[in-house]
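User: Could you write out the 3D structure of this protein bound to guanosine-5',3'-tetraphosphate? I've included everything you need below.
Assistant: Certainly. Input first, then the structure.
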Amino acid sequence: MNYQWYPGHMTKARRMMQENIKLIDLIIELVDARVPVASRNPDIDELGKGKSRIVLLNKSDLADEGCNKAWMRYFEDRGVFALEVNSKSGAGIKAINNLVQKACAEKIARDRKRGILNRPVRAMVVGIPNVGKSTFINAFAGRACTKTGNKPGVTKGKQWIRLNKSLELLDTPGILWPKFEDNEVGMHLAFIGSMNDEIIVMEELACDLLELLRELYPEAVTGRYGISWESDAGEANSMAVMLEGIARCRRCFLKGENLDLKKAADLLLDDFRSGRLGRLTLERPERQPVPEQENRG
Ligand code: G4P
């Protein structure tokens, strides 16, 4: 299936982002820990030139723990400050303050040399739609936060949240788009529910997910639905036959004895997205092409 899509409001979002980026020292980039590559923005290196950067592997509670560690190493090996977080529960959030100090060490030292002692680091949260930006800002800012109000001439009416004496956060996150012309990126985003399901043939999406899961986590499927890849999948281990197996197991029937494959597909996707199939990561660092060296900013 073709998973490419072209969101119309991208240009506006990009323009807003470019405007805001001038105001900040640090970019806090959220990615989805289950698909850390597909959920990254391809322009972020260019947009964030000269800025300090932190990558947060959000929704780490839904991703494979071993893979989270591997992705952390992947980013760290490339000189990128990274952290696993769960914005929903708040896990990992406290450690960010320390990381901010590390990521902005050069800027802080530069300020100090110039005699600027108490200027807080200004940060902006960025990420693709649905990656958890609002949830993260709420968790990070918490109840203790105070809006610092407008700062005419400096912030052009932007709202800043003062987190502590050394960190301010722009209260509106930057929305960025993934590499939507890449079919595999689109497919991975469709798996996690970041693409509108209404434009997707769910049975095909389910078959694509089954194919990937057979390779990465075969027992997650067999364990949950009590079907086996060999015997139930039939000739050529067809994923469609597997989906029929799920439909039978979950009693997804249309009128009569006909299987309701759409219902089975929705059920499988829902089980995956909500973590009921287990903590699964669909992208692996060792499969990535050797990327360019990334800057600390
Ligand atoms: P956005 O601003 O980037 O568009 O994303 P938003 O915060 O609205 O979050 C999108 C969905 O992801 C929300 O679920 C939110 O609860 C969930 N989410 C965010 N961070 C995490 C996380 O670390 N772990 C898990 N498991 N989920 C996370 P929703 O179903 O749209 O809303 P709700 O029913 O949870 O309120």
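Residues 46 and 193 are 27 Å apart (CA to CA).
User: Perfect, thank you.
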